[in-house]
């Protein structure tokens, strides 16, 4: 029996729907691969061996894409958040020195707040601008800008 394009589409839809009943997120990609083979067969007739070869290629490509680009996109979000704000400048509202914490205010919220306690290796008087060089827990380390 030769498989027709709609057989692949139907099989793909069944696989995608079966993903709802199986507690793993894996069958979906084989269903999407089957649908892609059906779409290709709608345009170009393929031999049975080529159909299964394409199904394997599409399915593997979808699984690889899932693990490489889409799975767990928040894995490094904390690090990105910290690194994204290094170099931002704000206004010192309470003097900071090597011996005392100060306070900095930003025009737009940084990491969820517009004011932060700061530390610095040098004295930065109130009213001066400073830039973030590190995020240490709930405190920002700054340098005079």
Automatic annotation (TrEMBL):
InterPro entries: Membrane_assoc_protease (IPR052165), NA-bd_OB-fold (IPR012340)
Alphabetic keyword roster: Membrane, Transmembrane, Transmembrane helix
Cellular component, GO annotation: plasma membrane
Signal peptide annotation: none
Record's keyword annotation contains Amino-acid biosynthesis: no
Transmembrane spans: 6-22, 27-46, 52-70
Name of the featured protein: Uncharacterized protein
Protein species of origin: Sulfurirhabdus autotrophica
Taxonomic lineage: Bacteria, Pseudomonadati, Pseudomonadota, Betaproteobacteria, Nitrosomonadales
